[in-house]
Design goal:
The protein is α/β, with parallel strands linked by helices. Helix 1 packs parallel to helix 9 and helix 2 packs across helix 4. About 45% of the residues lie in helices and about 15% in strands.
């Protein structure tokens, strides 16, 4: 089974130690695939469309799909609207859904740009979550901010077959040793 990993906003394979996660997938018997995204001047709608153009629906339906941060949002939307994978792993699910926007810091919104903010304002989490039917692991670090933890907890409540893994002392970094070890441990259980 293939295991797809979508990185965080503006990142590719060399920006973080995404290779450690891909190695975990390989050691667990998956065929790891890193999904590159053209993040520049694009929105969540564009990112989802780009992945749809790269990966056939039947391949996603028979895979493990995962993403970090904005890649987690992209993975969640793909799983809800395009192809429900066998397993879904959401690493540090960014709090950029319509329900989150009013609570985000001004500099966060400014950093991602007006076009993306408008697109996220039209993206409600609750209806998406109700369409996810596969086992889902949701990871969040305790030092990623209150809004991200709130988003992770709500996603866990709304996605039926989900489990929340809170990582004590971990920041927004999928390559942190505690994060990598938690991925290894939890992947062995599902």
């Amino acid at each position: 089974m293939k295991a797809y990993l979508i990185p965080g906003w503006g990142e590719d394979l060399k920006d973080r130690n995404y290779k450690s996660v891909l190695d975990i997938y390989g050691a667990a018997g998956y065929d790891p695939k890193f999904v590159t995204i053209d993040w520049n001047y694009k929105t969540i709608d564009d990112w989802v469309k780009e992945v749809k153009n790269k990966i056939l629906k039947k391949d996603l339906e028979n895979s493990l799909l995962s993403g970090f941060s904005f890649g987690a949002i992209t993975s969640l939307v793909l799983a809800a609207e395009y192809a429900n994978p066998k397993k879904l792993l959401l690493f540090s699910l960014s709090p950029y859904f319509s329900e989150d926007i009013p609570y985000l810091k001004g500099w966060w919104l400014k950093a991602i740009g007006r076009k993306r903010v408008q697109n996220f304002k039209a993206l409600p989490m609750s209806p998406l979550a109700s369409h996810i039917k596969c086992p889902t692991l949701i990871f969040a670090g305790s030092k990623e901010g209150k809004q991200l933890e709130k988003r992770a907890r709500e996603a866990n409540r709304k996605i039926k077959k989900s489990k929340l893994i809170l990582l004590d002392g971990v920041k927004h970094d999928i390559a942190a040793p505690k994060y990598v070890e938690a991925i290894r441990e939890e992947l062995a259980k599902i």
